[in-house]
Each structure stands twice: as structure tokens, then as C-alpha cells.
Amino acid sequence: MAKPVAASFLTQANALFKKNLTYQKRNIWSNVRLIVIPLYLCVVLVCIQALFDTLVNNSADNQCGCRCIDDKNGDGKCEIRSCGLQFSSQNQAVFCAFPNPPPLLPLLHIPRPETRSVDPARRDSCKRTGSCPVTILVTGNNQSLGATLSENLLSTSFTVNSSDLFLRNLAYTVLGTTSATDYTNYRDPGIYSDLPIFSIQPQCTPATTLPSFSFQQPPLEFQKEVRCVQGLSLWRNNSIEVNDEIFKNYLKGNHEEIVNEVAAAYDLLDTDRSNFNVTIWYYTTYKGDLQDWRVKYVRVPRSVNLVSNAYLQFLKGSGTKMLFDFVKEMPKQETRLRMDMASLVGPIFFSWVILLLFPVILNSLVYEKQQRLRIIMKMHGLGDASYWMISYAYFLAISTLYIVCLMIFGSAIGLKFFRFNDYSIQFIFYFLYINLQISIAFLVSSAFSKAVTASVAAYIYVFGSGLLGAFLFQFLVEGLSFPRRWLFVLELYPGFSLYRGLYEFSQYAFQRNLNGRDGMKWKHFRGSAMDEIFSIIIIEGFLALIVTYYMNRVSSTAKDPIVFLENTFKKSLSPQKFSLKKQGSSVSVEMEKLDVIQEREKVEQLMLEPSTSHDIVCDNLKKVYPGRDGNPPKLAISGLSLAVPSGECFGMLGPNGAGKTSFINMMTGLVKPTSGSAFVRGLDICKDMDRVYTSMGVCPQHDLLWETLTGREHLFFYGRLKNLKGPDLNQAVEESLKSVNLFHGGVADTPAGKYSGGMKRRLSVAISLMGSPKVVYMDEPSTGLDPASRRSLWTAIKSAKQHTAIILTTHSMEEAEFLCDRLGIFVDGSLQCIGNPKELKGRYGGSCVLTMTTSTEHEKDVELLVQDVSPNAKKIYQIAGTQKFELPKEEVRISEVFQAVEKAKSNFKVFAWGIADTTLEDVFIKVAKTGQAF
């Protein structure tokens, strides 16, 4: 048997691409609105930035202080304003110009009195009185050397001199402060605050008094109280002990109650007279200050000077000193607060912007699934690979255009989030993520059957991911206590991986705007967690595609493990099913008609032949739906055997629920048979359904059409799927439109959404016959058509069946007689009879029907008349004087009926009467009632 030439992968992809392109042209404004969404959102962000600039960045508190020094006119307007450090508050000072920053005292950062001391003997008592010493821990390989250096760390005197060498005099002593540091050191809070300065000396008692000092050389003007505090050096055996004492509160889990008890700690390692090697611990954190320490300066120089000076005295004697005169910042220009809102809210804001694509993609996929457009395309030969490739390429193109517009719009209107970071890193990050997003949408679409439900779930995912990222994930990223490995685990969630990448961009852009550092560059790639994020996104994208492929195979074949397990479970129901069969087997054999038995024997013979001219062969096909909610299993098809040759139209008749739709669904691959087998042109529907689709056409019961595509565009698409090209395709489309009366009056180029119900039905039939398929299934093709359109459609179907095997379901007896070469009547999943219309009427129509209408008082007279003509006549209908009788043909002659009626007319008035042979409808009703009664 010759096999049809299936459309190649590229042909299928081209057909779907052209269809999608046409579809998108019809929805061009929807796409434009989608692409322009980033512009709207970026404009909103610019407006927020402008408002923030007005209220915060440009406020007087966030710029160098100024004062009016000339108001000559007395009109309230300042003629001359002067700005500078002398007019500024502590907060304003950091924004002032410092062309020549003042030299400041080098201070040692020491703990507050209530948190000092690691000497167990004095710990509790000194903390109560506030007299704990400032402790410095020392360790190393040589304890005697450590003891010597400890003695040299602190000086024994404090002098104040108002000469020009004021700072040089203060450099002879070690001064400390408990004041927290600030972001810059132009005005050290340890000097300009009201807190005292401490002179750290080896011996100091509470009664010790030290002179205060003042300095009046602008811009350095201050007066400080000086207090004496004891300095204590303690030896520890190794660095582990030092670590334990410094970080003991942190290690206990008291992360919000961190208090340091030491000012500094030194590990002298292998230091000796010829080698100076030291590790320094220094004090830098405060309660509730875990985040800010990273951007504030630290007082390290004095700690370095102490140990260096002590080592120098060890080498050269006590008369040798290395003085530390002052510390000084770099000159700076006047600045203002430059807080970039796009960088601050960028992670959550742009997470929402990019994730907004996810509901669009998911809704499109689920809509095609819900409307069964995906399956109807597959039934007409569209392969899975072509569908997924073109769909992926389309969504990737839309998403890429979306993020390119986002970057262009954001940069054009001046958002520093985009302008300060390398564009190539941004694009690659967004491009990789939209690939992951599309892959996840493909995977998740298999879990939804309704587009509305999918959209709701998708938007919950979008906004939930942004909120969780901002209020949970970002907190964990910035928290020092959260393990980094768990951050990696959280980033496996796609919403958090996106948020982390955007967070890194925002941090680099914020720092660049604030202090001029570089934005995100490729040189920062490894140090910014972006390498980790890129790896996660790439791997998850591939995994999502693999799982999507597997899920698609699960839904389309019985070979996969999950389906195999389901089939195994279903087999557990089989004993009950077959026991029911056996209980009624004796009656089944008795009731089964000769025509049905002959059809089964014919199928059995065809199954033994190597090839056959029959395009459709069903051998003992069964379908049992498993029981649910306590109900028993439902037998839909019971051992159907049927053979349909090419050129024949086989009609399936039966009441609702008889099993016709279940049979069509099995033959079109929507459901799998429970047992038995079926072959289409020699191909097994359980194993080779993808190949069967290439030679199959389907007209479903409900029209599955794209409402924005025209009738002509529908036929071009399905024609390409049937491997039609060039002039052959154009000719086939024209002929198909003419055959179903959709060619004239511009109907062919009208969107299908504007068609009437009958026009949609005709288009569905034309689609099923496109490309001259070898097998066609039609489910009630003429439903909703007017008589003229129905007759035209029948003609088209009858013409198309010359080289096609057609299986047609219908409730119209007229349609069945006109189109079908053979008919089969189904009742409760079983084939009750089979044959052409004339054979069935002859076999089941051994009677004629007499109809007579009289007045109601003469109904009894009519019954007596009929009994005289045919003693075995049976009344089948009676209402308002109209009665119908079934007369056995072997008992009555037509001439006798005419004579009897003429005689009756002389006795009473007969309004109307008639006699007719058995119709196909009568046969259907009779067979259906008999089957249902059994």
C-alpha cells in the first residue's frame, strides 16, 4: 500500500511560522502595547526619581550648609550667600568642599565602658562601676617577645601645649574614642561630637584628672574633655583563643547583640629581631550596625602604629619613637546627595517588568490547549518538534524585543540602573533569563487546562516573586549570618535568580552614582555572584526543556514509565470487567446479528493478510473508563470490529452516549484503547499515531478556528501541513473554498470570528478535506446548516470520498442516506447492525405505516378498520384524532388498504390519511430500543 508523503520538518515549521506571522499581524496593536509597557514603567520610575530629587536629594539637609551674609536691600532676599563647613551641621558637613582637609588626631577605636574587659577576675565588678580597662590581646610564637612589646604599646604621660606643634605633642600619647565612625573622615565624630577623648595609659585611677584642650585654627575648631583610662595588655596562648574571645557573642547566635570587649589584638606569629610579621584584629562593629560597617571608614592606622612603634623600641631602645602626627582625608569638591531611586528599587521594580512576560507566554500556550487548537493542528500533521521550535522562536523574538526596548527606553530617559552597567552583561543576563522563562512556561502549561486559571497563577507568581525577593531574599543576601550555600539553594527558584542578578546591577549602579566607582563590568563578573547566577539560569533552562519534552511524551505515548504504571494499575480492574463480559457472553452470542459477525470475520481475515486495501481496520477495539467517586468502570466501546476501505463513507448512528465520540477519540489519538487494536493504512494507532496524522483529516464536533484568521488563511496553513506547495496549494485552496460555498462575496477573506455558525462549520469541513487526506473523521459535519448549505456540503463530501475512507457520525437520517455507503448503529458501545441503508430498511423494516386523521369520536372506527385489513397491526402513535399503525407487509396489500379507506370515507369523515414504507429513522428507533432494552 502506498504511503502518503509527509511534510518535512522544515515544511511544517514554515507553515506554522507563516500562520503565526499572519496571526500576529492581526494582533499588531496588542504586540505594540506589550512592547511599549517598559517605556510606561520607565517613565513612572523617572517621575518617582524627580519627586525624590525634590524632596530628598535637593533638600537643605542633604547639601553643604549656607548662610546669608548680605541683605542690603531689606527686601528679604539674600544678595550674597556663603556656604562652607562653618555653616554646616554634622549631617551637612559631609557634603561641603574640602580643598584642604584639616589634619585630625589619630584615634584608637575602643569599646564603651560597659562592654570592656576580658579579665575574668574583674569582669563583673568593673562593668558595674564603668572602670574596666581598655584591653589589648597579644599572642604569638614567642611569649617573652610578646611581653616586651606589650610594655611598649602605651605611653605614660599626657601633655597639652598650645603651640603650633599642638598635634605633634598629642602624638606622644595614645588617644581613643568610643564614638562610631561615619562614612567619611572630614569631620571625625570622635573629635566633633560631645563625647570625651580617652588617654590610654598603663596606670590610671578614677581620681586621675587630665587637662582639657581646645583648638581654634579654622576650619579645625573644637574643645575636648580628656579622661584617663587604663590600658591592659593580656597574653593569649594562640590565635584560636583570641578569636573565641572576640567573636564569642556572635558564635552564641546573639547576632543583634554583638559587643566587642577588646580594642585590638595582635598575633606576632614568628616575629623576632630580624623578622616583623604581625596580624591585627581591630574593633569596627556596633549593636545594630552589621550592615553599615561595610561602607563606613575604620580606625585602623593607630592600631598599626602602636605595634610598629613598640617593635621599633624593642630594637632601638625606649628613646626611639615613631610618632603618628595626624590623619587626613583627600581633598574633595562640594557634593550633594545623589540617591538613585532606579538603583534602590530596581530589583523589585524590574523583576516585575521582566516577569510580566511570563503570564503572556503561559496564557497563549494554555489558550491553544484549552481551545484544542494544538491538538487539531497535530491531527492534521503538525509534528511536536515543529510546534515547539516555532513557538519557542516566536516567544523568544517577542521577549528579546521587549528587553531591548526596556534597555533602550531606560537608557534614553537617563536611568542610571542601565547606563552605569555594561550593556553586554545586562543583555546576556536578560537574554538567558527569558530563555529560562519560556522553558518554564512550556513546562507549567501542561499543568493547566484553562487560560484564566493559568493567568491568575502566573500573576501571583510575578508579584509574589518580587515581594518575596524584596522583603525576604534581599535581607538574606545582605545578612552576614545566613549561610552562602543556602543562598545558592534559594537562587534555584527562578524568581530569586532574576532578583539576585538585578540586585547586583542595582548595587553597582548605586555605588557608581554615589561615589564614582565603576558600574558592573566584565572584570566584576566573578566577584559579584553573576557567574553563579548565569550558571543556574543556563542549567535550569536546559532541564526545564528536557522535563517538558518528557511530559509531552508521557501525554502522547504509553511507553513512558508513568503511563506504564498507570496501565498496570488499570489492569487491576480487568478481572471485574471480564467477569461481567463472561456473565453475559451466552446472551451476547445469541443477540449478535449475522451482519456484525460477518464484519468481525472479515476483520479477522484482513488481520492475517500482509497488506490490504482497507484504510481503516479495527480489531476487537475496547475502551473502559476507570470508575471514579465510587462508581463502577464505564464500558464505552465493547469489542468493536470494523473495516472501512478507501472510497467508502461509513456512517455511525446511535443515541447520545452510545460510544461514537469515544470511538472517534481513539481513532484520532485523543485517548488510548483499553484493549484491541486499530490500523490506519497499516499503521498502528497505539504506536505510529504521529505517522497516521500525516494522512488524516478531522472535522470535530465543535469548530476549532483562530478567530482573527480568514477562511483562506486557515486553508493555506493546513494545506502547507499536507505538503502542498506553490500552484498546487493555491488551486487546492480555491477549489476547497468553492466546494463549501465560501469563495464569493469576500467571505474567504473575512476573519473567521465574523462567520456565522454555518459558515464556520463549512470551513471546518473544508479543512478536514484539505490536501486529499486518505482517512477523514467527521463528527456531525452539517450541524447548524440551512437546507441549501447542507445539500452543498453533502455534495462536496461525496465528491471527496472517491479516494478517501470517511467515518461520519450524524443524527440526520437524511444525511446518512445521502452520504453513507454503509451504516452502523451503536447502542451502549456495541455495534447492533451494519449494512447499507437499503439493506437495513429491508432487514428491519418488514412493515408499512398507515396514518389516518379523523375526529376524536371516530378513533374507534379507525381501529376497527385497521383490524379488518391487518389483524396483527400495531398502534404506534395517537394524538387528537391522528393515529399511526404498523402493518406487517406479509399480511396486507396496498390495494386492500385503499379499498378499505374509500369504504370508510362513506361512513365517517376522514381528514387525511397516508401509507408509507419503513424509513431509516424507523429502523434506527427500532434497533436502538431493542439494544437498550437488552
N-to-C terminal Cα separation, in Å? 41 Å
What helical percentage do the residues reach? 40-55%
Radius of gyration: 47 Å
How many strands in all?
A: 25
Question: What would the principal axes of the Cα set say about the shape?
Answer: elongated
Unreliable stretches covering 5 or more consecutive residues? 253-257, 287-294, 558-591
Query: What's the overall average pLDDT, rounded?
Result: 81
Please give the largest β-sheet.
7 strands, mixed
Number of distinct helices = 36
Strand order of the largest sheet: 3-5-6-9-4-10-11
The helix/strand class is alpha/beta
Strand content: 15-25%
InterPro entries: AAA+_ATPase, ABC2_TM, ABC_transporter-like_ATP-bd, ABC_transporter-like_CS, ABCA, P-loop_NTPase
Pfam families: ABC2_membrane_3, ABC_tran, ABCA12_C
Domain ABC transporter: 616-853
Subcellular location: Membrane
Structure write-up:
The chain has 934 residues and is of the alpha/beta class. Among the domains are: 27-45 and 339-556, no CATH class; 97-316, no CATH class; 846-917, Lrp/AsnC effector binding domain/regulation of amino acid metabolism (RAM) domain (Alpha-Beta Plaits, 2-Layer Sandwich), CATH 3.30.70. It contains 36 helices and 25 strands. It has a seven-stranded mixed sheet with strand order 3-5-6-9-4-10-11. Strands 17-18-19-14-20-21 form a six-stranded mixed sheet, with helices on both faces. Helix 31 (787-800) links the parallel strand 18 and strand 19. Helix 1 (9-26) crosses helix 15, helix 28 (711-721) packs across helix 29 and helix 34 (859-869) packs antiparallel against helix 35 (894-905). The model is unreliable at 253-257, 287-294 and 558-591 (pLDDT under 50).
